[in-house]
Hints:
Helices cover 37% and strands 22% of the residues of chain A. By secondary structure, chain A is α+β, with helices and mostly antiparallel strands.
Amino acid sequence: xxxxxxxSQGQNQATCAQCSLKKFSVFKNCSSTLLEEVFSHKALxxxxxxxxxxxxxxxxxxxxxxxxxxxxxxxxxxxxKEFILWFAKPGDIIGLDSFIxxxxxxxxxxxxxxxxxxxxPAGDFKYLLRKxxxxxxxxxxxxxxxxxxxxxxxxxxxxxxxxxHFAEVLISLAVKGKNSSDGxxxxxxxxxxxxxxxxxxxxxxxxxxxxxxxxNLIGVRNRKVVIKNFDKLSLVAIGDxxx
Amino acid sequence: MKAALKKLExxxxxxxxxxxxxVFCSLSKAELGNxxxxxxxxxxxxxxxxxxxxxxxxxLYCIYSGKVKIHKLGNDGKEQIVRLAKQGSVIGYRALLxxxxxxxxxxxxEDTHICHFPKAAYLDLLMNNPQFxxxxxxxxxxxxxxxxxxxxxxxxxxxxxxxxxxxxxLREFFGTEEDGMTINTILTREDIGSMAGTTTETSIRVLSxxxxxxxxxxxxxxxxxxxxKELLKIANLNE
Lengths: 243, 239
């Protein structure tokens, strides 16, 4: 991980006191001077899109405080398939739960656009916790929100309609492939395989594919599914499609 | 309470046999004494609801004996079990922490004795005992891990795999009868299905399929795991 961590000392001027995101983060109740003192080893790190900030199973080194850019937080499931748990945005702090449980990173964080983040080593964070125990309330809130979010998704996912599920599978396959998300993305999986993944029949899947292609979300070319409208398809996947 | 239910003498918190395995283990004797003063206790029959999703929390529930399922209502009115809780665990604390309404419903799976602590007593402890709040955070993050694990499974595993895993989780959670193979519970097929995130019909179908392949033996509501190796293989647990 150290190999991709390029510290840009030049930009390291931004202190926690000046950080505009402070009031949204879990540190909002900490005084700036305290943060300055405690986070003496923090470093501003830049990542390119598709860089991994941390990998599931790596030993815990510290948390990242996102300054700029969006990341996807994924978990590796069965046979290395990735599953996106949530998206981290500026002001979010990632790696907190690994810190609390004192264990290896429980997820992989991948930048989906250029990301700028402050790295706070584990030691500094521990020190802060000792100095200002009241921060635990903020941590709790953060965890509560995450659990609520995931359980909410869990409930909707388990009852997800096949078409929503299908959209999600298409997206995850497309992102996994080396093609970028702009332009048409071809997914080279047979309909039979995809029906298997979804636990449905081929006939039903054809029906959904027809519907999607009517709406110009996907197309079929050379017996491959091509994603035409990525954004709309992702809306279908999260069940948030404006009908 | 109903006469049919056996009334139990609930000990004060510092004498409670569950205290060492619960979140309250880091509390001093005096703090436990205060808690005992504040608490009240109640008996719930099997199938009774302890709290409903969307209502306002008045306090913290701690299970003295018995078992509880925590479930959420989906958009289409079907339920999804998000967690199971047994003696020594506290439930409903997340709504208290974020001063929000309950996120889920808690229903008893068997006759259950529950202690109830008022909101103020709990929040007071949280503010004044850093060890206790750290413990709470750990509890939260383990809940998060369970939820993350469940959602990954739900998205990527087949129904059969999820059903096999649900059975294994149930066995771990409820324990077994003397023979070491029969799961010590009488959950309905619907409950098992809503743990695995599937319909009652599919739950029944998969279970009888397991039965046919001699992986489990069904005897009424009782489920006996006869071929654990095969079940593990189907569950595809790689952790």
